[in-house]
Amino acid sequence: MKYLYLVVLPLLIFSACKENKKVSAPLPSDSIFNLSSTWKNQNGESLQLKDLQNKTLVVVMIYTSCKSACPILVSKMKNIESKISRKDIDKISLVLISIDPKTDTPERLKEFARNNAMDAAQWTFLTSSEEATQEFANVLSMKYKKISPIEFSHSNIISVFSPDGQLVSQEEGNIDIEKVVSTVTKTVKEAQ
């Protein structure tokens, strides 16, 4: 009996210690979370993209003073959000990144979020330096160009990233909302 205690007790202690330690895998080399740029969200909080880790991301680049393509992209993001199962909503983050960091301050992004009923926890608005914004646009293969003091020409792309920051899919141009929702749902399920 004494021998049994000597064998079982160390195994129980080892397994208890093992369960409490959660080892995180290293990020894939192509993860957006490897980018070291600093951003500000709509609440004025500084963060890096890695702070968005462990959620499925739905990402679009816009600017708040846009009168043509951006309102359509915002509408599509809201439509995507409305079609995601409420049981999965806390496992995703809908991220809108400004391509106009001079105009789109955290205060302006917060007002934009509030005016568009996009101020729940799943919505994240980000702004950064022009260099960081261009770097992220390059990662997405998203093109944009300032064509007047208040106007940009830009690609219309919605991207889905896995919780480890890898690009899962992109929809460009005439975005298929059902396809994006299906990809998000599948990505969330695979991450569990």
Q: How many strands appear in the DSSP assignment?
A: 9
The topology string of helices and strands comes to HEEEHEHEHEEEEH
Q: CATH superfamily membership, which one?
A: Glutaredoxin
CATH architecture: 3-Layer(aba) Sandwich
Helical proportion?
A: 25-40%
What is the 3D form? globular
Give the strand line-up of the largest sheet: 2-1-5-4-3-8-9
Helix segment tally:
5
How many domains in all? Answer: 1
Question: What characteristics describe this protein?
Answer:
alpha+beta; disordered N terminus; two-stranded antiparallel ribbon; seven-stranded mixed sheet; 192 residues; Glutaredoxin
What features would you describe in this structure?
The protein is α+β, with helices and mostly antiparallel strands. It has one domain (31-191): Glutaredoxin (3-Layer(aba) Sandwich), CATH 3.40.30.10. 36% of the residues lie in helices and 24% in strands. The protein has helices spanning 2-20, 69-83, 106-115, 130-140, 177-191, and strands spanning 38-41, 46-48, 56-62, 92-98, 123-127, 144-148, 151-154, 157-161, 167-172. The strands form two sheets. The protein has a seven-stranded mixed sheet, sandwiched between helices. A hairpin with a 5-residue loop joins strand 8 (157-161) and strand 9. The model is unreliable at 3-23 (pLDDT under 50).
Compact summary:
The chain is of the alpha+beta class and 192 residues long. The protein has helices spanning 2-20, 69-83, 106-115, 130-140, 177-191, and strands spanning 38-41, 46-48, 56-62, 92-98, 123-127, 144-148, 151-154, 157-161, 167-172. The chain has a single domain, classed as Glutaredoxin, CATH 3.40.30.10.
